[in-house]
Amino acid sequence: MTEKHDPIESLLKAVKHNTLSIDEAKQQLSHYDELGFAKIDLHRKKRQGFPEVIFGEGKTKAQLIKIIESLLKHNEIILITRIDKSKANAIIAHYPQLEYHTIANIVCTPIDSIEKTEHYASIICAGTSDLPIAEEAAITTEVMGVSVQRFYDVGVSGIHRLFAHIEAIRKGKVSIVIAGMEGALSSVVSGLVDHPLYSVPTSIGYGANLEGVTTLLAMINSCAPGTSVLNIDNGFGGGYNAAMIVKMIESH
Amino acid sequence: MTEKHDPIESLLKAVKHNTLSIDEAKQQLSHYDELGFAKIDLHRKKRQGFPEVIFGEGKTKAQLIKIIESLLKHNEIILITRIDKSKANAIIAHYPQLEYHTIANIVCTPIDSIEKTEHYASIICAGTSDLPIAEEAAITTEVMGVSVQRFYDVGVSGIHRLFAHIEAIRKGKVSIVIAGMEGALSSVVSGLVDHPLYSVPTSIGYGANLEGVTTLLAMINSCAPGTSVLNIDNGFGGGYNAAMIVKMIESH
Amino acid sequence: MTEKHDPIESLLKAVKHNTLSIDEAKQQLSHYDELGFAKIDLHRKKRQGFPEVIFGEGKTKAQLIKIIESLLKHNEIILITRIDKSKANAIIAHYPQLEYHTIANIVCTPIDSIEKTEHYASIICAGTSDLPIAEEAAITTEVMGVSVQRFYDVGVSGIHRLFAHIEAIRKGKVSIVIAGMEGALSSVVSGLVDHPLYSVPTSIGYGANLEGVTTLLAMINSCAPGTSVLNIDNGFGGGYNAAMIVKMIESH
Amino acid sequence: MTEKHDPIESLLKAVKHNTLSIDEAKQQLSHYDELGFAKIDLHRKKRQGFPEVIFGEGKTKAQLIKIIESLLKHNEIILITRIDKSKANAIIAHYPQLEYHTIANIVCTPIDSIEKTEHYASIICAGTSDLPIAEEAAITTEVMGVSVQRFYDVGVSGIHRLFAHIEAIRKGKVSIVIAGMEGALSSVVSGLVDHPLYSVPTSIGYGANLEGVTTLLAMINSCAPGTSVLNIDNGFGGGYNAAMIVKMIESH
Amino acid sequence: MTEKHDPIESLLKAVKHNTLSIDEAKQQLSHYDELGFAKIDLHRKKRQGFPEVIFGEGKTKAQLIKIIESLLKHNEIILITRIDKSKANAIIAHYPQLEYHTIANIVCTPIDSIEKTEHYASIICAGTSDLPIAEEAAITTEVMGVSVQRFYDVGVSGIHRLFAHIEAIRKGKVSIVIAGMEGALSSVVSGLVDHPLYSVPTSIGYGANLEGVTTLLAMINSCAPGTSVLNIDNGFGGGYNAAMIVKMIESH
Amino acid sequence: MTEKHDPIESLLKAVKHNTLSIDEAKQQLSHYDELGFAKIDLHRKKRQGFPEVIFGEGKTKAQLIKIIESLLKHNEIILITRIDKSKANAIIAHYPQLEYHTIANIVCTPIDSIEKTEHYASIICAGTSDLPIAEEAAITTEVMGVSVQRFYDVGVSGIHRLFAHIEAIRKGKVSIVIAGMEGALSSVVSGLVDHPLYSVPTSIGYGANLEGVTTLLAMINSCAPGTSVLNIDNGFGGGYNAAMIVKMIESH
Amino acid sequence: MTEKHDPIESLLKAVKHNTLSIDEAKQQLSHYDELGFAKIDLHRKKRQGFPEVIFGEGKTKAQLIKIIESLLKHNEIILITRIDKSKANAIIAHYPQLEYHTIANIVCTPIDSIEKTEHYASIICAGTSDLPIAEEAAITTEVMGVSVQRFYDVGVSGIHRLFAHIEAIRKGKVSIVIAGMEGALSSVVSGLVDHPLYSVPTSIGYGANLEGVTTLLAMINSCAPGTSVLNIDNGFGGGYNAAMIVKMIESH
Amino acid sequence: MTEKHDPIESLLKAVKHNTLSIDEAKQQLSHYDELGFAKIDLHRKKRQGFPEVIFGEGKTKAQLIKIIESLLKHNEIILITRIDKSKANAIIAHYPQLEYHTIANIVCTPIDSIEKTEHYASIICAGTSDLPIAEEAAITTEVMGVSVQRFYDVGVSGIHRLFAHIEAIRKGKVSIVIAGMEGALSSVVSGLVDHPLYSVPTSIGYGANLEGVTTLLAMINSCAPGTSVLNIDNGFGGGYNAAMIVKMIESH
Hints:
- By secondary structure, chain A is an alpha/beta fold.
- Chain A contains 11 helices and 9 strands.
- Chain A has 2 domains: about 80 residues, no CATH class; about 140 residues, Rossmann fold, CATH 3.40.50.
- In chain A, helix 6 packs parallel to helix 11.
């Protein structure tokens, strides 16, 4: 970080050369922490290309439009997750330069306009009911500038479907497994790949599935060592972590 | 059940023919239910060869010796589960005609002396830690007169080990899968066989395994349709059910 | 399985006799797993008469109609569970050769058109509220070609109702007990029959029933050895397992 | 309660007639609540014959001996529950006029010396493992001056054993059912009697029994209306309630 | 029960005297259990005056009307619980001789037309939100022919309100405490009365109340010995038990 | 409390001086507890300025209007929490002298008309979703006559935002931290202040948040010693406690 | 805090006057956060008199002796909680100037040597089993320089015992209620006092008490507004919070 | 993977050229799956340097010695986790070329003999009680050939300790946060770094910590997006994942 402009040195020099009063210097230093961290945040975004992420649930159309306006001024990439159809249509009407992914419940900067990595993340899910979360993970990964390969409908109850794709899954640099019910897919895939795997339990199931808590607990107890777990239905979190890894690999 | 001797008809005839007083007939009928069910119980054991099962936990050596004495008088097959080493040794010292299975924690009639079915039950478990429960299931099945094939150490984290044995597993008439942690083995096997599968969760694991509750819930939520679930560590229950099925198939 | 045509031997012979190039042979072998398992699946369906089962919940009318079209091309038996009235009516309008069971929430090939076993499964439930799940189990069993006898409204709070039917229940080759609340019916019936019993907890109850979790836990802890448990409201699973058993018995 | 002596009227009269100073009257009134309730407590014990109950767990031998000494001075009946063998022996050595019930883990005034009601409470339990709690209930009931009839080892897995005794159970004025595992005995008995039934879940079981929580929840969800539930292993509570009812009936 | 007509003796005599064939006697005896229990049921209702209770939830208007028709034929008392406004109005329109209790969600035989006991049950609740469950308990008790006294809005956060009524509460022969949140009222009242107390937890509360489970657990753990607990919101169960006790006291 | 008027002394004097009959004195004393506590309640309100608080949820518009009418007669301060928009508008239409806080879901006496303390409570929350609960806490505190400073949107995922305000937070006499999800803000703030901190978990989150139970448990386990916890979403409780502390400090 | 010496102003002045190089100034500022917070910590201890608290559980005798040595060098007050008898005796042997409180499991600076506030905290507990936690709260409060009044053995099952002391409890400036089982004491006391109340659930109980979780949940759901809750058995936390409040009141 | 030797092509060529009989070729292909996966496993280990990991808990000294013997023959790196002192000493006595890490409960190939990456993983933990799990993570990472930097005792209750080290933490390529209680450290660190973070909850805590379940749930609900979670006390899993990432970065 030798290239970093050093605001504290500048300030001290200004005090020394009487171009800054002690009171004003104190005032600026009192905000040091805040400026410092904010700068770090901007630095991170620059280097990693991680967009501002907006959790759409619970925000009004008006609030969302205002936030987007602010971000577009700084030419930021847009990523709004958990947005329903009605809000999404209102936003697209206002900002036709964005696109709406109906299955993923995401509004974002068009995927095709984003430069992506050569390496890819493998996104694997068991059944069609898990698709919204799988797509949330996939679109998040892509918006963050990382390529993905989708391997859907490969649940363990017909395990030959998984084996037909295992070589391509293994070629990815990271896997995200999205599954509901007993979540066994996570352990099975982890035993077949040699890269980190993120397990995203979904709330798909009924009865003793307990709205995904059973799936979460099962995945946390995986007998395979290379897995870690996100919150129920947190496809975004899976995509965010996976994208960080592929970016780091490709930037070295 | 046309061959069944009808005690009520006999009783009524005896009343009619004055060989039985009304008071005595009433007395006998007052015990009808009890006798009826007891008879049924004996009938079941005769036909199915199911032994009296003794849950060893919480019983003293003296109590166990007394129960065995009573059963041996009727030439019953003996099966004592959940018996620790100290009690087992005391019993074997007293009844050298029985045998002690150290891993299964079972004392029983010698397995070799029991005639067994041609068809077998497939008993599958993931890791060496699950062996005591797997053996409890296996010995129970065998004591009930049913052959078993053991497929141990075939966990899903190295799934090729399972596939090396899948044909033999499929040839069994019923499967018992014993697994701890996330219990994924149950779903994977169920997708590969076409007979009923009993899932026995074990308390093997740590942390969020919750002493087997997580495994139980995961198995209950299996995405594969042909499974049903026993209580945690209930290898006996798995063996008992599996043996009933193989016996029924072979007796038809 | 000596009658099984061996595709690998054919392939190897074709390579040896130069009727197949090594590249083509490799291509075919790369799909070996998939083909192999697919074949197994078809084999299972042929032998056991198990239909493709469609979980109707979460699928659109259009999706369901498309799936049915595909299955009917192969003359498959149709079984769609968890389908609501609106979707069911749309499907029947499109495929009048199917029938809709309103209580069971099932659309399927007409039950009367399916050949069934001589032996039957006993289906027992406690109250009228459990009927939808009991019927889901019954229709599933019948669609799979197995006869059923229904014993409804025989809860333990008036246990004489159960005893009036116990002989007929015992004559079945397998029992399915469907119950909510404390699920005591499962233990009581299991003590009276000598065949396997599947317990299906229902979400019928209130308060500390916890939407069926209490019933599930109670059934898992049954003091009677011959029971195993399905997920809450999983009448289909109970029927599927029971049908496998009766079929196996009758095919031997 | 028209016969009740009215201390407040006396006090006011004394003030009016100058036999009591205002300050002293205020002092007495400030303790009104405390005296009032204390009196009530004594009154209750007199009328109902309910003894002081001592929870033995966590108290030292010395503490217990001191408490007994105090109670014996007032000729109270003694009832100490949850007392282990070592403490019990120490107490009996000190107060040979008491007796120790080893299964119930109770030290108390000799049962034979206590006058008991004509009507009885029916105490019903499933298995030998539940005996300590059943005996805690039985001895508590007897110490409180109420007769009991014991019906042990009548679990639902062999329901004919229960029916052999059902008439005698019905003749009691209240039932206490002690059971572990799935607790089905509670619902079955409740459907056969027409008096109140107290369900005492025990911590007998393993795995998903969750140390009695499953039994408790199952009993709370009983389909039979005439039951209510005590804490896990609270045999004392069951006996205390049952004794209150029989006493009230007999005193009218 | 010496007055009981003995059908078995009659039957045996008829056989002996040739007025009944053996076949017909067997036929009758084969239904013995069922008739026996049914008779017992009727006997109970006769002696105790307990009505048939109908759980209204989940039953259609048509079903309810049909059930009522059947009961009215036998001049039974009617009690339908958990019935919503729409169904209730439909029933009252059809059977104007019944009355609808809007707070209790009950339709029943008019309370005023039912003869009631001299002794009463004390029904105590904490807040206005608990009123529907308190009224379900109260109306149930009254329909069963037992007088009640209502003590509402006497929660422990302003404990002086409770003390203003404690003498009248104590005069009842049994108490029902209905409370939500932490359910402390149950322990406080139990310490002040000398009769059995039924605790009915309600689902009133929010957050960590867990829809009444917290209240249920708290009541189960009451430090006061004379309480037992019903399911969450089970006002009917509380009333049913309480009524049994008062009836038994008054019939002796 | 030497200034307290002593009603009992007056009463006793009146009896002594024959200005009060013994019957009337008894009548008054019979209500002693109730009057006593009521007086205490009034006394508390006078000294602390704590208003009557009305929990709006589950009360009708008519009920609310009637309660307000009663309170306004005594010139009480009004505080109605958990009131939805429709009810709030109806009340404001009826009592225009009150004001409606839309985010807090509170109707109350206008905040500006209430005299407030010099010291303030610091109210800190993490995200915009927690605002309704934070505002419930803030308005409650203010209605009780205590100043507040709001520090919103200072979650730990961007901890520099918190540090920018930490000095001002520290100057408050008590803190209320409102947070959902993992609730880490509570521990972080507690480590930085030297006054008591109330943690209010919110139900903001999804999946394994379990509607706030996870947040509640996390806050209860805070590694920082100066925190205590309220129920989920209980902003009112946080404000009530905080206001008591500031009032006590300022009144000394 | 105008009296606070300002190190940043000094630094800036030194830079301006060339008595400090820019590099050295940058070096000092880079440690600003750490120094700043450390200073704050020391400042807090000075002003509030809060001692360093050592959690004794899991620390060895040697570790404890070393920590004490370090603290004594700075003349700090010593407070070690959760220390067992063996460790405590070893420490007292080494540092006879400390004292050991056997019930509270605390080793600390002698209570008598610590100057205490005029106002006191009321410490209330239900039964003798709760004493260790109550004493942990009491000793913690006293070590922190705050007076306490103990009100032990005043459980709600005999509520007159509580009322005998209520005036003295009310005179305290804060209450700590320590209770197990259903924890009702917390709600009852809170309704009778007008100061903040800290509820400390204990793990005293059995069965469905769930090692204190039930008590914790019940206290969190208290119907009384002026309470907040600590972790199970966290008497120290209760004392720490209560002491902060009394200190703040007395220092104003 | 173009360099990969293709065994299937060789086999087919051998068949074609008659150097392999069809029967032998079939035999080899029948083991294809198993060999294929085994080869993959070996390949993974070669490329990534991941050692065979032995879970020491539940294995005897004899078993462990035998496993080590087998691994040493293949010159494998040794890593045995969860091994207690007694077993560890026995192994070191037998294999003095291994080393025992007492805090981490690990026996392994000497850390100094393993070549490590230039980049490092940051390992952060809150308190001294979490050290065993933190060291399990650290040693695992190092045995896998990845450098680590340890940042211990930086809990959020004194957050300045964390900030003193934040720059060094940020320079790592991945973080592992080990924490018990409320686990807030995970969210705080995640907000300050721009690389993936693995959260390992520990079972450190008491009461409502529920042996780490609370910590696990809190970490799963982190408000910071770049975290994922391992099982309770699974330091090994954290190290394994972190090592995979650093290795992948450095190998590109």
